[in-house]
Amino acid sequence: MLTAIEMIDLPVIQPETAAPARPRKPDWLRVKLPVGEEYAAVRRLVDEHKLHTICESGNCPNMGECWGAGTATFMILGNICTRSCSFCAVATGRPTEYDLDEPRRVAEAIKLMKVKHAVLTSVNRDELKDRGASVWRETVVLTKQLSPETTIETLIPDVKANWDALDVMISGGQEVISHNVETVGSLYRLVRPQARYDRSLEQIRRTKAAGHRTKSGIMLGLGEKPDELYQAMDDLVANGLDILTLGQYLQPTKRHLDVAEFITPDQFAHYKEEGLRRGLKYVESGPLVRSSYHAERHVNVPI
User: Fold this and answer.
1) What region holds the Radical SAM core domain (predicted)?
2) Hey, is 224 helix, strand or coil?
3) Are the C-beta atoms of residues 82 and 124 closer than 8 Å to each other?
4) pLDDT tens digits for 267-284?
5) What digits encode the pLDDT tens for the residues 55-98?
C-alpha cells in the first residue's frame, strides 16, 4: 500500500555530487493493513461485480478503515487514464473499456453493500467526445433508483473545457460534486502537465453556478509554499468552493514525484483553521486525508 523509503548502503560520494536525502516517513503516516469480515465482504463484492475502485488503483491509505465500515469509492469508465499526472498511481494509456452496462452493475453493487453514502469517480477519458458524461449521469440516476436513501458524491475529473459534458455529469441528482485541483498553481506543469489551474477553477465555478454543493482537494508536500496554499484557498473561495480536503502526498512508486516534505499534524490543523478563516465552509485536513475520507459528513454542508 504505502511506499516504504528504504535505506541502503552506498559508497561515499563527494558532497558536491551527492543526491539530496529523501525525507524519512514519519510515524503518523503508518496505517494498519485492511482486515476483518466487513472488509472481506466488500472485497468479494468488488471482485464478483468486476468493479474498479480508486481505493485500490490509487493505493489509498484509508482503504482498510473505509472498507471495514462497508463503504468504498467506485471508479467508473475503466481503470486506464488518458492523462499522465506525475503523482497518480492509476495506469496511463489508451483506454479499451467502455461498458454501457457499468452503471447498472455499480448501482446494484451499492445496493447489495447497503452503502449509505457512495462516492463515484473516474479516470480521464479525453478520447471520448462527451468525456463519458452519459455513463456518469446514468450511474447516478440508477443508483438513486435502486437505493433512494443513499447519498452520492461525484468526484469528476477535468473535462477539458467541455462544459456541455459537465452539465450532463452534474445533472443526475447527486448531493456533492467534487473536482480536485490537486496542487497550487505554480506546480501544475510539474504535477498535472495536461491540466490547467484556471480551467479547474472554472469547472468549480460553473458547478457552483448551477446550484450544487462543491468540493475540491489539494495534496501537500509536493514543494508548495504556505503563501501559495493560502492563495489557492482564496482562489477556490472566489470560485464558489464549499468543501476542501487537504492531505499528505505519498509517492506511489519510485517512478512518480518524490515527496518534497512531510507536513506535520499540527501544520494540517493550522491549515484547516486558515481555510475556514478565509471563507471555506468545511475543511477536512490531516496527513492521511484523501478526497473521499469522511465524505458522508460533507452532505450536510449548507449550499
Assistant:
1) 67-281
2) coil
3) yes
4) 999 999 999 999 999 999
5) 555 556 666 566 655 567 888 998 888 888 887 877 889 888 88
- pLDDT over 70 at 301, yes or no: yes
In our burial notation (b when 16+ CB lie closer than 10 A, e otherwise), range 209-248 reads eeebbbbbbbbbbbbbeeeebbebbebbbebbbbbbbbbb
How far from chain centre, in Å, is Cα 92? Answer: 16
Q: Where are the beta strands (DSSP E) in 156-266?
A: 176-178, 213-220, 243-248
157 torsion bin: left (phi>0), alpha (psi -120 to 50), beta (else): beta
What distance in Å separates the CA atoms of residue 284 and residue 265, rounded to the nearest whole number?
Answer: 12
Question: Exposed, middle or buried, 302 (CB in 10 Å: 0-12/13-18/19+)?
Answer: exposed
Closest CA to 66 of 76, 78, 54, 75: 54
Q: How confident is the model at residue 2 (pLDDT cuts 50, 70, 90)?
A: very low
177 vs 197: CA distance, rounded Å: 18
Q: Which residues are annotated as a binding site?
A: 55, 60, 66, 81, 85, 88, 292
Q: How far is it, in rounded angstroms, from Cα 113 to Cα 149? A: 13
Query: Is residue 75 a contact partner of residue 122, using CB atoms and an 8 Å limit?
Result: yes
